[in-house]
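Chapter review: from sequence to fold.
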Amino acid sequence: MSSITEASVLPAPASRSGAFRALGMIVVAPAETARRLAVERYWVLALLVAAVVSFVTTSVNISRVDIATEMRERLAAQDPHATEEDLRTGVEMARGLAKLGGFMSGAITPVTILVIAGVLLAAHMGAGGTARFSQALSATTHAWVPQSIKSILVMSLMLSTKHVKASTAQTILRSNLGFLAGTGHRTAFTLLSAIDVFDFWTIGLLAAGFAAASRVSFRRSLLVISGTYAAVVGVRVVLAMTLVHTP
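The token string follows.
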């Protein structure tokens, strides 16, 4: 009897298709997949997919944005006496920074995921949970799938839209309430942008993953993650307010 019980809780043997299957199953069966990931700890493929999607979508989106026109308008508004050479220099600098951002996006996303995994692991340990970093990383990389889906949807809209401005690009996919405020109202936009369908989806997947990995209830994990998210949003809002009042 004991051997049957033990066999029922032992992890299934890892297979080459397991990591690929986990990426798909986290969308259709998140709770079951989260419990499996707490044991099998697939994260390499998920992290690689997140990095590649981020690099490709960011690079494509940057190439679709009309940086020159918007940058010229902004520089002219800031300095009515700016010469054509000044405007040309400003546009070239903006293009260079945009390209740099595209190249760096493939590295920024994995680093962001690693930081999130570490912060949430510490938060859950403080709430009485027990987990290893590999489990936290497995949960976080797979919870990032909604963000990758969002990036692909934004890229699709960018490709089907002509003359995309940087301000328009931020609200082209109306998955959050940021479009109600518009990018011109920075503080309100920052706050309303946090009310995002894909962010809430990610929070739910994180809660399922960390609940299974840390051996705490889903409700407790959800409270920990939601509180962390609220704190991050609060910092963003304060920074936006500071920038608004900066001359």
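Two observations follow directly from the output. The chain has a mean pLDDT of 82. The chain has one domain: 17-244.
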